[in-house]
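User: Before I run my own analysis I want an independent prediction to cross-check against. Here's the chain; please return only the structure tokens and, at the end, one sentence I can use as a sanity check.
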Amino acid sequence: MTRRTVRIAMNGVTGRMGYRQHLVRSILAIREQGGLDLGDGEVVWPEPVLVGRRAHALEELAERHGLTEWSTDLDAVLADESVEIYFDAQVTSARVEAIKKAIAAGKHVYTEKPTATDVEGALDLARLARDAGIKHGVVQDKIFLPGLRKLKRLIDGGFFGDILSVRGEFGYWVFEGDWQEAQRPSWNYRAEDGGGIVVDMFPHWEYVLHELFGQVTTVTAHVRTHVPQRWDEQGKPYEATADDAAYGIFELAGGAVAQINSSWTVRVNRDELVEFQVDGTHGSAVAGLRNCRVQHRSSTPKPVWNPDLPVTESFRDQWQEIPDNQEFDNGFKAQWELFLRHVVQDAPYTWDLLAGARGVQLAELGLKSSAEGRRFDVPELTL
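Assistant: Structure tokens:
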């Protein structure tokens, strides 16, 4: 068995997402399983180099997980020729400069989204990466969720017939931070720091819609800051300048229409924190993070509107649960493994910085649509 070590500079792992999903549940999980088996007796062994601004936090993380390498000097880490990949999970406002440095140093780049604060910045990163000849990828974790993978299986099998519409509901109540600690960091609610639910979630909706149902061709959005004041990590009140709810309508290539509500100011009355209902001529499905249930045309009941009588049937019981049929790994880990294969074996990989730019573009046009009160076409991006 040949073990190839791939050293990865991981910037931003002291944050919630960078630590929990990327370090613990992806890179360390790959190590715990003995590395990534490439076949033919070769295994990839990821070796993280933790990078950030807070030395004490990095040192504590390293000690907790038995790691030896960490640094607050990004330039020095990028100058190390043994480091092959740069990963970025920082706040968006710090991302572009760091990725440019990594590209200039000849590192392969894997990054969280959004890749930049505007579409020109995102396209610039994609062009720089192309010209440098490096490999690059953007985290697009939602399409690796078990529920959406089941949904993809239905689409590929022709279950829906012609897909007519997609309705998505995402969100939960994020506490304001005064009487209960907020579940999200305060910068999420400051536009000047790159916060806002449109910037956060529209890039997700772009690739989910694009991958499953068709390219987004138009966007109409209405955004709001429903909670105008919140409290930060030190218990101090601050003005929420970023949007905390967005209501979007997306026309898709092929004629389907998607409507997705995204909110950090909604109390959950659904089975999962995100759900998509897909309706087609031959059947419908509701998919969440893990589960997916269907109703075929042959078993669709015949409801009749009668407000004078109480409902005597359970509509939820009229749907059939799709079985797992396979073991689904963590979505972040699954995509990390694909990117590592891309770097080491040159395996195909489509979720690159240009794909990331499409997400930034949709967020930018969504905010513009809300500000100007009109619908916008979404032109195809090219380098």
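Sanity check: The longest helix spans residues 353-372.
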